[in-house]
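> tool_call: predict_assembly(chains=two)
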Amino acid sequence: MRLKCPLCGDRDRREFYYYGAEDYLRRPGEGAALTAWDDYLHNRDNPAGVVKDLWYHEAGCAQWLVVTRNTVTHAVSGVDLVAERKP
Amino acid sequence: MRYSGLKVITEGLRGNTGWTPAWRDPAPKPAYDAIIIGGGGHGLSTAFYLAKNHGLTNIAVLEKSHIGSGNIGRNTTIVRANYFLPGNSEFYSHSLKLWEGMEAELNYNVMHSQRGQIVLCHSDGQRDALARRGNAMINQGDDAILLDREGVRELLPYLDFEQTRFPIYGGLLHPRGGSARHDAVAWGYARGADQRGVDLIQNCEVTGIDIENGVVTGVQTTRGAIRAKKVGIIVAGRSSQVAAMAGMRLPIESHVLQAFVTEGLKPVIHHVVSFGMGHFYISQSDKGGLVFGGDLDFYASYASRGNLPMVEHVMEAGMTLMPMIGRAKVLRSWGGIMDMTPDGSPIIDKTHIDGLFIDCGWNYGGFKAVPASGWCMAHLMATGESHEVARKFRLDRFATGHLLDEEGTGSQHNLH
């Protein structure tokens, strides 16, 4: 598998560290209920199909990326910088 | 039909004309007392123990493909009870005892071979950790022997003892550990359940779970609706999808784990051997093939096939540990879908829906758990109470903080 980093271009999968589902970007606010924290840390949709997940370009530009890909075919359809995400 | 050595001989003389199918192929009835979704190892053993231990025989196992077509037919067949944490330790200890009685209980040859499992250590710290683990195993009533370097050399003379990068300091021998014939475990439980009246319904995919006022009433399938007051979800790599039918979101992320087998060789590796540095473990099947594997591919996947970096890593680890296998040709590799929980331990619990139970999250340790998982899930479904050796496998332990993090790697799905 190769990922096309927006800054570095097409790179080998081994340059990247996988962290988990994009859910990690939706951190509950201060004083959120414990169930919200449980959901944030542990529970996942985990679909067989298209997902968005968080990768870190460890051996490249050190940017966090949101990768859109298919968990059944391993096809990658998008790689975006977390830093440029609109809230 | 009862199997025996005599039966094999007489059937051989009769041209093998007297064998009958090991289980029936029934059509689904409109209603059962209980339904098991998933005809894999855990589902079949649950059905077997529901019938045998609890007298519940009006039950059906629904399998979307054929019996044993999932992870029970694609694993590396290691059976061991070398866990450390209270909660895990008693469960796997119970499981190993069930393994030891399985062939007599099922009247089926599962080729269970207690050839000994050895985990190697490569530093002082690792040796201390193994000593501590061995003590926990002995306290649990299982067996463990701490080996020094020469002790390892005696058993595994073919390891590379010269290399300096990962020097072999010793290992922990678990004599009762070993392996078994994976398909036979599914077939044995299937046959045993069928003999006790359980309907094994193949090619029957569950498409919906019927719930009324918070109580489960049955399931929708590709072969029609089936009513039941109790439903157990035991579907390994598809846990999130089936649970979603009941509106549940599980603490699970699915990952692919690869395994490999070589061409058949004469006996060379007599134990199950685990490398303590690179994640690598190996044993030799009775057919002669070297069966080995390593780590997850590390990113969520349902592809049932892996990626090349992990293939390379596993081969490197194997060559580092035992260069003698370098000339063996790999016949095939495959990937299985693992339902990874954030702490690396499984779930056997009720759900918030009355009558709906779930057994999932086996990460990549499900094979050795097949008998005890079925035993405990059957106990839970029949009595409504957790079995004493599975009482910590709670679905809500992530919310309450009662994690069972055997590896101590933290609350992230792919780190276990």
